[in-house]
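User: Continuing from earlier, I have the next pair ready.

Assistant: Great, send them over.

User: Here they are, in order.

Assistant: Folding the first of the pair now:
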Amino acid sequence: MLRLGTRSAAQTETIIHNFPSTAEGGGDGVWPVNALIADTRGNLYGTTSAGGDQGTGTVFELQHMPDGSWNDVIVYSFPANDVQSYDPQTLVFDEAGNIFVAALQENGTGSGGVFKLSRVQSGGWSGTEIYTFHSGNDGQSPIGRLAIDSSGNAYGVFDVQGALAVFELSPQPDGTWTKAVIYTFPGQQFAAGGLTTDSSGNLYGATQALAFELSPQVGGTWLYSTIYDFSAHGIGYPMGDLVMDGTGSLYGASVSGGAYHAGSIMQLTPAGPGQEWSATILHNFSHATGIWPNGNLALDRRGNIYGTTQRGGPSGRGCGEIAGCGVVFQLSLRNPGWSYRVIHSFSRDDVDGFLPLGGVTVLDRTLYGTTQQGGDSLQCKNHAFFVGCGVAFGISPQ
C-alpha cells in the first residue's frame, strides 16, 4: 500500500499509484491507456497494455483503504501469446458486478476476444475468455468499451473482412456464448470508440464520419439510424465513447478539426423521430489549453464535463516534439455558453505522469485517471521518449 505525496497545479493532484514493473512480466502491469471504472465501494479498475505474469497486459484493481491509501491488486493477467500484448480495451460492469473487457489481440490467432471476470467466494477473481474471434467471416479486433444490457448480453464493434460491424454476444444455458452480427456499416468506416446504451436498450456509437443509434425491435432485429453526419458538417475525427446525460443528449470529443485544428468537444441533442440530431461545439482546443482530446469524457451530477487531452497545455514542458504533456479539463455551463478551464497540466518529470490517454472517471467529487507514461519508476526508462511506466492519479476540483 502506498500513500503518496500531492502536487500543486491549478488544483491538487495526488499520485495514487505508480506502475513500477517491467514489460517482460511479473508483478505489476505497465502503460495504462484506458479509462478507469469504479465499483459501489469506491474501488477503481483499469487495464494495462503490458506487464503482468506473462508481460501481455493486466486488469488491475486499486482498492481504496480506510486510511485513504490505495492498494494495487492484479485482478487478471492475460495469458502468454504470440502477439506480445492483448491490447485490452476499457472495462465495463454488468448488473451483477462482473467485469467484461474486449481485447484487440488474442493468443495464437491475433484476432481478438472478449473476457469475463467474476469474483470467487474464496476471494479474488476468475477470468474466462467467453468468445474468441477467428477473423474472416467470424470477425476480428473488437475495439472500445462493450455495452451490457439488462439481460446480460454484450455488444461491441469489430471488423468483419474490412467492414465495420456491431456484434451481440448472448449467454447460453450451457455456459457458452453465441455471437450475432446486428449491423454492418456500408463503405469504409472506422470505429471512434465503444458503445453506450440507454435505459431502453438503444445503442449509441460513433465512427470517423458519423454518430449512430441502434434500436432493438420486436422479433430480435435492430433498427439503424444515423443521428449525425460529422463529415457533412466539418467536425473532425471523433475519438472515444459517447457519453449520455439525463436528458438524452450525447457528448463526445474530436481529436482533429475545430477552430484551431486541435480538436473540440461537442454536444449532440435529440430531434424528432427520423430527424438528424443537432450539434453544438462547446469548446475548441488550442496548444495553450491542451490539444487532441482522445479519451472518454465524464459528467458529474451538476452537468460539468471532464476529460483529458493527450498533449498541449500551459506547463510548456515538452513531450517529444510537441509542447505540453496533456491536461485535465473542465467544461461548465454558464449563462451564456460554456466555460472551459484547465484543472491540471501534466509535465514530464519523475513525479507527475504524462500522456493521459483514457480520460477521467468522477467518484465522490474527485477525478481519477491514468497516464500512459511518467511516474517514479526506473523500470520503463528504456527509450528517450518512453519515461516511466505510467501513474494513476486523483484530482479534486475546487
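And the other member of the pair:
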Amino acid sequence: MPAGAPLTVSLGDPTNPTPLFAQYGFLYDDCKTLFCQAIHLQPQIDELGYEYKDLLIQTESGEIAYKVWDIFLYKLLLENDPDSATAFYTACTTNDEKTKEEYHEYYYQYTKDVMKSHVDSIIDEVNTLTAKAKSLPLSSYPRVPMIVAHNELMGQTFAMTKEILDSLEWDEFYAEYCDPNDPEGCDVLMGLA
C-alpha cells in the first residue's frame, strides 16, 4: 500500500445491514437492499449456488431480486414435483433463462402465494419485536433506538414488497424482471449484474 493511501476497513457485505447490525451494533444510513430473510431456504440457496447478496429486496421500492423467486419456486417443486425440481435446478445452474421463465410462468401463482406468506410472517415478526423493544426502558437498554431503526427499515421494506406481491400479475412480473432477448436482463434490472 502506498504511503498516504486511504485505509479502509470492510465490516461485511454492504448489501445486507442485518449482520453488520448484529455483529457491530450499528446501521449505515444509505442501505439500498436487504436480504430477503429466507433463512429457512438455506438448502435451496446452497443447492442453486446462490449467495445472500443475490437474494435481495430493494429498500426504496420493495422490489424483489429475480433469484429470490427462484429459491421459493425450487422449494415448491422439491416438495410437489421432484422431476420438475430437477429440471428447474438444471435450468438455474446452466443459466437457461428460457426454461426458468417457463417454470416461473406455470407456477407463478403458487410461488407468489408462498412468497406473500413469507413476507407477511416477516412483517408480523418485525412488528412484534419492535413493540417489545419499544416497551423496554432506555436506561437499561440503550441500544433500543438502534434496534427499532433496524426493525423499522425491515418493516417498511417488506411492507412495500407486500404491496408489490398483492398487485403483481404474471405479465407484469415478466415485463418487470425479464427480457427474453437478454438472459442476464433479470439481474441487470435488479442492479445485481
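Worth noting for the second one:
The beta strands are 33-35, 56-58. Residues 108-134 form the longest helix (27 residues).
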